[in-house]
Amino acid sequence: MTAQRASGSIRRRLFLQLALIAALLSVGLFLVTRSLAASAVEAMQDGILAASATSIADALRSEDGAITLDLPYSALSMLGTINQDRVFYRVVVDGETLTGYEDLPPPDETPTISRNSFSTFAYRDDEVRMVSVARVVSTGGVPSTVQISVAQTRLGLSAISQRISGVATAAGLGFFLVATALSLWAARSALRPLERMTEAVTRRGPGDLRPLQAETPAELVPFVDALNSFISRLGASLQRSEDLIAEAAHRVRTPLATVRAKAEVTHRKLQKPEHRLTMREMIRAIDESSRSAGQLLDHAMVSFRTDSLSEDTVDLAEIVQETCARLEPAAGLKDVEIRCQTPADAPTVRGDWLLLQSAIRNIVDNAVKYSPDDSVVDVRLEVGANIRISVTDLGRGFGGADLEALKARFARGGNVSDIVGSGLGLTIADEVARAHGARLELEPNKNGEGACVSIVFPLS
Amino acid sequence: MRFLLIEDNESLAGAVVERLQMDGHVVDHADTLDAAQACIAVADYDLILLDIMLPDGDGRTFLASHRKAEKQTPVIVTTARSEVSDRVGLLDLGADDYITKPFDFSELEARCRAVLRRHGGAAANRVVFADAVLDSTAGELRIGEVGQTLRNRELRLLEVFFASPGQVFSKSYLMDRLFSFSSDVNENAIEVYVGRIRKRLEPSSARIETVRGLGYRLVALT
What we know:
Strand order of the largest sheet of chain B: 2-1-3-6-7
CATH architecture of the largest domain in chain B: 3-Layer(aba) Sandwich
Number of strands of chain A: 14
Largest interface: A-B, 50 and 44 residues
Shape of chain B: elongated
Radius of gyration of chain B: 19 Å
Number of helices of chain B: 8
Structural class of chain B: alpha/beta
Largest sheet of chain B: 5 strands, parallel
Mean pLDDT of chain B: 87
Helix content of chain A: 40-55%
Order of helices and strands of chain B: EHEHEEEHEHEHEEEEHHHEE
Distance between the termini of chain A: 23 Å
CATH topology of the largest domain in chain B: Rossmann fold
CATH architecture of the largest domain in chain A: 2-Layer Sandwich
Oligomer: heterodimer
Low-confidence stretches of chain B: none
Strand content of chain B: 25-35%
Largest sheet of chain A: 5 strands, antiparallel
Structural class of chain A: alpha+beta
Number of helices of chain A: 8
Strand order of the largest sheet of chain A: 4-3-7-6-5
Radius of gyration of chain A: 51 Å
Low-confidence stretches of chain A: none
CATH class of the largest domain in chain B: Alpha Beta
Mean pLDDT of chain A: 86
């Protein structure tokens, strides 16, 4: 039987899908963590910048109609909490720079008293964050608008961001690994019932046609039901075939038996030699057709049984002895002696008793059939490197025929046209041998005359 | 010998009965199991030929009850079933042998002989001519105190002559009795076997005489 080619694996697909989801979630987690961290750090910087600008604004004084500023130390020192960053400031009164860096650009958006303005830009080779605060200071009854801007580079900030990104990456990666492991486990455990069912199906013997009764998950109940209905139909059909073959044999053989018996009676009564010769030819034709019918039905039964080979423990010595004893009366009719030798401690083989018996019977029957009168057929069961049942006759041999071709259906040697045969005996033996892991060997007998046919079983 | 033939096919049964009678046997025919039981109740048989498929039941049932009743009569089953089907059970159920239909009567005879030999009975199956005794069941020719075991063809040839002493048998007739229908043989092959039985009969006063142009016959020396 050829194995069904697998098209993808459910487990792999399930695992890959879960792992893909895990990867997307990890990336999402990483991005969210990083952006939350970045905005938190930015908010912190903005807060400090605003506090700094406000404290500068609070230090503004109006003296003698002019605005003065005594820059409070704390205003800039509080910004020092973020390391290594440079701080710039600029105080503008009505468009005139009061103090600070004159080249510090104005904010993108002009701040009002109620709203500070924040902007980010490049300044002196670095990116800076700047807050601008507006105040109205009255100088001698005249209100002036003061705009205080404090800016700070973002080096420390980006260092913190980077640290947080690192942590976020590690967290995302960790999440991904854990999720992947979990999805592997999930894929496995989801498929465990399926594996259990597969095991239940494959563990059963070939002849076991009972319905499947493994624990079945709800999704697979329709499948198992379909399978069981198929098994029961198969069982019924097999039983029908077996009955049909047996019935066909009965139907064919009974009338042939009647014709043959009547022909033999008539033959005995006839006086004229030419009439007897005719009757003899008729009986021969009957034998030929009944043998062919019998062998065809046997072959059908053998093919049928090898398909669902039973696994009995078979004592080969017993079969060989029984078969020899069974064929002895027929062999005796032409004074052919069947010599049967079996060792006392022959090993057993696993297989189908009926089939093995049929194979051995066909081989011994052939040997008797082709043996000359008053000769000997040697049947030996030998155990050495393998188990060998060899049947040797002193007949005409294979006449140089292609030995492998003789195993084919209806193939007969070129030197046997005068002997009734169907060309199925060796085919049956060959098929049975192969079904049991054995091989059928044909060779000329050692003394140059006769044939030697063996079934060779590997020693298990 | 006395046979009971249990067979529901009238035509086949008729032929078998006629053929067995030709060899001097007495044959009763029963076409159902009931009829068979009735026959067994009133007569003693040397051998029962049993068809396995009968209208009023399986021949196996008969076999089982036959063995249960501890009847000693040997049973040979005739079956038309496939060679590779259910015949294993037949021997287990107590059949002494089985033969597949259609069968060769010589083979049936050989099987009957083998079965009877195993049962060690049928002493009645002896034919005496002059000082020679032919025991078909044992396959033995006894002359005075000396017994000779015969080969199958020698036995069958002697049976033909001992059944009708003095009758002339042609070579072709003897050939048909001795050789199977399925093989080609030369009529002269019969001379070999006649030569053999002549040697067997030498110590006795029985002789196989050649009748020129006609064949052979069994005569006693005077």
